Amino acid sequence: MTKIYTGFVLAGVALVHGLGPAIAADLVKAEKAEQYVKVCSAFGEGYFYIPGTDTCLKLGGYLRSDTYVNAVGTFNPPISNVSGKAFNAPGAGVAGFPLVTADSSDYDTRTRGLLAVETRTQTDYGMVRTLFRFGEQWDSQAQPGVSAGASLYFERAFIQFAGFTAGYANSFFNAGTGITYIMATPYAGDNMWNTVLAYTAEFGNGISASLSLEDAANRSTGVQAGAASSAYTEAGALIPTATGMSYVDYQAGLQLPDLVGNVRLDQTWGTLMLSGALHRVGALSPMAAPFTSYVGGSADNMLGWAVGAITEFKLPMLAPGDRLYLQANYADGALNYLGLSGTPQVHASGLGAIQVGSTLLSSSGAYYPIADAVWNNDTLSYSTETGWAISAQYKHYWMPTLRSGLYLGYVAVNVPENTVGAFDVNVAQAVANLVWTPARNLDIGVEVIYSRVDGEVPLANRAATTATGAATYATTGGSTDVWSGGMRVQRNF
């Protein structure tokens, strides 16, 4: 009232001294505007009321500059087909995933700006919350064979109301992005974002449970009914290809979403969560199947599933802010719930890296296709692939402005016997970083990543049968070690 009264007094003085009605009106408007935008303290710091409404708004985001060494796509080491652009020389597709040539780029740069817009409104039925995170980035190597350029970046957009969540958010199979101590997205452990329709029930004392319907497209690793495309002929001569090595995906159309559920306990000491998922695997029958005259003449429907356990311990007795995070997962016909892609948005259907030579004997490395299900030549039907993953992360503060993150992870994929061009494979990773915070919300960090892809057979050209029943050769097997990493400068606001 005092400031409003002062405004009217100033307006009156202006009129008395002949400043004119326009100036007086401007003074009153300015005073009203000062009163109109108010801080919203009900939901924490940074919120303010949208003028004329009871909705609180918070703006945030970040600006980051990354330099990746032997890595692409947010520190993703080049060991899967979601990071295949690392294997192409600038301007032309010399070789696609998993082939590495002498012309492959040794480094990549990315600058990204992200804006987060969050609103909260208290209603008679509970709080309505929306979150939209989006931005744009510039890459020095945007796509295979494509020169540097900018592209839009979409991260998350969802609505929460009365326990319901609808939109693109963290999968309810994992604990969310808040629990990650490294800059890379690891290969062991689930980190997927997805389109969800979920309900969360709060039972008090930090106990909650969620049930979620989630888009199966983001979780479908693939269905392999034929051999992987060959990189070498039977005689061992290299076949140059810009598209790389892969297999024809016999995934049937989506008919059911994944059913995901979790039970979670949040306490002052940390978090404990158990989760599970059901995933339908629809597989088209290849022409090699009995009584099938064309692809898709019939189909197999299998039920894939996954279970997971997550726990985070807060360790202030070691140093303020110290934390330990453990995750374990098992999957049958739902491999994406193990991780295996190095990104929270895209799934991978192949692992490895092959340093090419003029012949297979002069090449080294590894390539293994992975799929939710693979064609079995003995049973003339599909069999699901299984796997498990275990990982640990530790964050330690050396001092309030200097911290480190350490990650160790291992994921194994088991392929049924007598299947088409597929073999067991595992991925081991170790990550370490050092991050300096010289000013509030400003991070300057470096990270080093060691990745190993290994399997049960040596790298070789192997005869296999295609989906039509014809004989072909596929390059599979082997092992490889990849060192990668980079540097990041990020300002959060």
TrEMBL record:
Bilayer topology term: Multi-pass membrane protein
Protein name: Porin
Location(s), subcellular: Cell outer membrane
Protein task: Forms passive diffusion pores that allow small molecular weight hydrophilic materials across the outer membrane.
Family to which the UniProt record says this protein belongs: Belongs to the alphaproteobacteria porin family.
Domain of life: Bacteria
Keywords for this protein: Cell outer membrane, Ion transport, Membrane, Porin, Signal, Transmembrane, Transmembrane beta strand, Transport
Pfam families recorded: Porin_2 (PF02530)
Signal peptide as annotated in the record: 1-24
Protein species of origin: Xanthobacter agilis
InterPro entries linked: Porin_alphabac (IPR003684)
Domain writeup: Consists of 16-stranded beta-barrel sheets, with large surface-exposed loops, that form a transmembrane pore at the center of each barrel. The pore is partially ocluded by a peptide loop that folds into the pore lumen.
Chief site of localization: membrane
